[in-house]
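Re: the 125-residue chain
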Amino acid sequence: MNALHILATQSTPSVTSDWEQGLLTMQGDSYPENSFEFFGDIIAWIERYLKESRAPLRLELRLEYMNTSSVKAMMDIFDMLEEAHQHGRQVSVDWFYDPRNERVLDLADEFREDCSFPFQIAADG
C-alpha cells in the first residue's frame, strides 16, 4: 500500500500520496465525525514511509478548517515528523493558506512553534 488516495467529502480533505516523491498532500476542510478513523490511514502511511524509505518526506497542506479532533490528529502527525527529524530524517511541511483566512495562518503558526524541522507557511495564490 504505497499509494494513499482519499477523495474529499464535505467534511474531510482530499489526501494524495506519492511514495517515490516522498510527498503527502492534504487539501480542504477537516471535521470528520470520527477523526481517529479518518486519520488512521494517513498516520499509518507516514509511519510506514518513515520506516521503509530513507528519502525525505514532505507534507503539503492546504487545510482550510479543522475541528478540535482534527487538530489533535495533526499534532500526532507533527510529533511523528519531529521524532523522525530528531533521528536525522529529512522531513518538512509546506502549509499554504488562503490570505483571507487569518485563522488558518494562526493555526499553522501555532503548529510551527512546536516543530524544529523545516515548516513553511505561505499564502496560496
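The longest helix spans residues 68-86.
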